[in-house]
TrEMBL record:
InterPro entries: 4FE4S_WBL. This is 4Fe-4S Wbl-type domain-containing protein. Residues 87-96 have a biased composition (Basic and acidic residues). Residues 70-118 are annotated as: Disordered.
Length: 118
């Protein structure tokens, strides 16, 4: 009788949680339910200034700062978090590939010139 190993299944929530790290509840946070203000990434926006001011007086600022510091830069959420503006990493465009010459058909000998017989 073959021995089957059980593979642990991971729920989508557990999968997302592992990518984002352990997100604290921050029940008393000023940003709770206000993603429209805190998710802004434009540093010239009034929303960013409003969010940063909200963070300065937030009772959850310490827990939020600790959580943000625990994340690698690549996993930090964009927008204002812990009084800091996090922007999405700029994507480096792929280098342009050299243009390919059109393929010749197997029987194609190229353009015919005057006086040539083919």
């Amino acid at each position: 009788m073959p021995h089957h190993r059980r593979v642990a299944r991971v729920s989508p929530v557990e999968s997302i949680s592992s990518v984002l790290g352990e997100i604290p509840r921050l029940d008393r946070a000023n940003c709770k339910g206000r993603a429209d203000v805190w998710d802004e990434e434009d540093p010239t926006s009034w929303r960013v200034r409003q969010a940063m001011a909200g963070c300065r007086t937030c009772p959850a600022l310490r827990d939020c700062s600790d959580w943000l510091a625990s994340l690698p830069r690549s996993q930090r959420p964009p927008g204002v978090v812990a009084g800091r503006l996090n922007r999405r990493p700029e994507r480096t465009p792929r280098p342009d590939r050299p243009k390919r010459r059109p393929r010749r058909e197997l029987g194609d000998q190229g353009p015919k010139t005057a006086g040539s017989t083919a």
